[in-house]
Specification:
The complex is a heterodimer.
Chain A lengths: L5 H10 L12 E6 L9 E2 L13 H4 L5 E3 L2 E2 L3 E2 L8 E5 L7 E9 L5 E12 L11 E11 L9 E13 L2 E9 L6 E3 L5 E3 L8 E8 L14 E8 L4 E7 L2 E3 L6 E5 L7 E10 L5 E12 L2
Antiparallel strand pairs in A: 1-20, 2-7, 3-6, 4-5, 6-20, 7-19, 8-15, 8-20, 9-10, 9-19, 10-11, 10-18, 11-14, 12-13, 15-16, 16-17
Chain B lengths: L4 E13 L1 E3 L3 E2 L5 E10 L8 E6 L7 E8 L7 E7 L4 E7 L5 E11 L1
Antiparallel strand pairs in B: 1-9, 2-8, 3-8, 4-7, 4-9, 5-6, 5-8
The chains are: A mainly beta, B mainly beta.
């Protein structure tokens, strides 16, 4: 007998685990979040403030905490997750253009490649007996990264943003978009310590080349199907390596990032976020079940 | 197995006026909850407003659970309601008198 191929052995172990076999993680799994074990570190992206909450930018003021949902519907009962009962649920408020997101905050110990994979489903609140296919404006994924201090003068903060623009003002768009332009920073409070910028704002999104992508919405707002997302990023060169939605793989060069000089208090930041936005005066929901974050270090 | 628990900030710095309610929150995994209601800005009302705990079959249609709490009258004051056996959804609702409003922080401590 020869020596087993370590990579084949590892893949076989992943394939034998029903929780992980639907993922293709890099060599080290940093976290596996299936939401049947709680929130797994996914929380609210709260805006910066000083002295008073009124100082928070309006974009952040609308954010709220995600939920653990069995995806119950008035007509069909609990839908459940990809496996198990619960999924992470991110809900907007019921006002056209409202947004919300969930964020997980880590740091990294080596500047190497990282990967986030997830299964997601976006649906509108089912409060009308209509198809409601254009009620969700968008859902997406973003990273918020900053070099480690050892990067020296080349250190920067880099924020890759991707969203699926489902509909805009009632018209189907079904196009992946990205964002490259920095949103203006504004000072918060009066100490000079705090600034803020609402990087999820509706402005500045641009279509990905070959970004058209028809996803499975299904035939009612209460029927949902899960979609696979994967984003790889190199923390050393601070460039995207791979973006994929189900079978469709996009050129990494098409994935844009908001880039800016390194900030004084964000060294080695490794944040992951999911976002959702409504195009109607009803809540939009993004369900996530599950998420695997891995790294090649 | 350690029991799951969570501290949820349901609404933060939101103005209540007229028929007001907190955002719906899914609580199906929890067995017991304490809802906290804190006033952040002065509530210029002559008499305390009653706030009702509500439950829902679907997060869309709501009915009173039966528990009530007072809307605190002074910034920083907190009122609370303990509830159990609440199904899948919880929210707070109130009817503010004409001309009355309050800036509130609604939080929820949920335990499996």
């Amino acid at each position: 007998m020869g020596t087993p191929d370590p990579s084949a052995f590892r893949r076989a172990m992943l394939d034998a685990d029903p929780r992980l076999s639907r993922f293709d993680p890099m060599s080290r799994i940093l976290s596996f979040d299936d939401f049947d074990r709680g929130f797994c570190g996914w929380g609210q992206l709260v805006g910066n403030y000083e002295h008073t909450l009124d100082a928070m930018l309006p974009g952040y003021a609308q954010h709220s905490q995600p939920m653990l949902s069995s995806i119950g519907h008035w007509d069909a009962g609990s839908h459940g997750g990809v496996d198990g009962t619960y999924a992470l649920k991110i809900a907007t408020r019921p006002e056209k253009g409202a947004q919300n997101c969930a964020i997980k905050r880590l740091t990294f110990r080596k500047s190497g490649p990282i990967r986030i994979e997830a299964y997601v489903a976006a649906k509108p609140e089912a409060n009308e007996l209509l198809l409601s296919m254009t009620d969700v404006r968008s859902f997406g994924i973003f990273l918020d990264l900053q070099s480690m201090e050892s990067a020296g003068a080349s250190a920067e903060r880099v924020m890759p943003h991707l969203r699926y623009l489902n509909a805009e003002n009632g018209q189907l768009r079904q196009t992946w978009q990205t964002k490259r332009h920095e949103t203006a920073f504004v000072p918060i409070g009066d100490t000079g310590d705090t600034v803020s910028h609402y990087h999820l704002s509706p402005e500045g999104w641009e279509d990905l080349a070959d970004g058209q992508d028809r996803l499975c919405y299904n035939e009612l707002p209460t029927k949902l199907n899960w979609t696979y997302l994967r984003l790889d990023f190199d923390l050393e060169r601070m460039v995207p390596l791979h973006f994929q939605c189900n079978e469709k793989v996009f050129s990494p060069d098409a994935v844009g990032s908001i880039r800016m000089p390194a900030m004084k208090n964000l060294w080695g930041m490794l944040n992951f976020g999911f976002l959702v936005e409504t195009d109607s005066d009803k809540r939009a929901f993004l369900y996530v079940d599950s998420v695997c974050i891995s790294a090649e270090f | 197995m350690m029991r799951e628990s969570a501290h949820i900030v349901v609404d933060r710095n939101v103005t209540w006026q007229g028929e007001a309610a907190s955002e719906p929150y899914e609580v199906g995994w929890g067995k017991e909850a304490i809802l906290f209601l804190q006033v952040l800005a002065p509530a210029p009302h002559a008499e305390p407003a009653k706030v009702r705990v509500q439950i829902s079959p679907d997060g869309i249609h709501w009915c009173d659970e039966g528990t009530t709490l007072d809307l605190p009258s002074s910034p920083g004051d907190v009122s609370h309601a303990r509830v159990a056996h609440f199904g899948g959804w919880l929210r707070l609702a109130t009817s503010m008198k004409d001309g009355h409003s309050a800036r509130v922080l609604v939080s929820l401590h949920l335990k499996a």
